[in-house]
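Troubleshooting log. The previous run stalled partway through. Resubmitting the same two chains, unchanged.
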Amino acid sequence: GAVVSQHPSWVICKSGTSVKIECRSLDFQATTMFWYRQFPKQSLMLMATSNEGSKATYEQGVEKDKFLINHASLTLSTLTVTSAHPEDSSFYICSARPGGSETQYFGPGTRLLVL
Amino acid sequence: GDSVTQMEGPVTLSEEAFLTINCTYTATGYPSLFWYVQYPGEGLQLLLKATKADDKGSNKGFEATYRKETTSFHLEKGSVQVSDSAVYFCALLTNSGYALNFGKGTSLLVTP
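Second attempt completed without errors. Output:
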């Protein structure tokens, strides 16, 4: 149980385009979902927290207009990287937390390469 | 603020060796503590957790004990396998927050 999927797993795009990443909790309802960014050989940096039906809370230094987060249902959150640039290339990982639980379950990650 | 410090890697061990990865934390209150593992090219998987002092989390031969007196949560395994090669992250969750605070990760390489 407690499986989280992400789609796509890999994406390569041209500079200036927008990319949408989906995060789904497959067998539980996630009241809260988190988006992280991981640079090579570094730890995870929390970008934002989203609660179903409300606006995401962004961490300091994360541009909310660039990284659009939507948590429209209890099983789906999306991260859209708008007007992507090469410096946005990274590994993006989502996690989901069931209601009443403190444990987060992580997706397999999405590797984004912006050319 | 809350933080996690773990030993820097990479750690290289021979198969069947004993593993210890140190993790200490700074937090107000009584955090929950976690170890996550990340295999190459994949996301994080929860390895084990402990929610209060003196709790021992265990899974797949790995163990960690929540030591409040030393603010530590060291990860141990008695006999590592090649398949244990991965990056291990220590993390804490404060009882007032909902986001995990991660350490920088420790890379483990187990050789045959």
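Takeaways: Residues 7 and 88 of chain A are 17 Å apart (CA to CA). Chain A has no helices and eleven strands.
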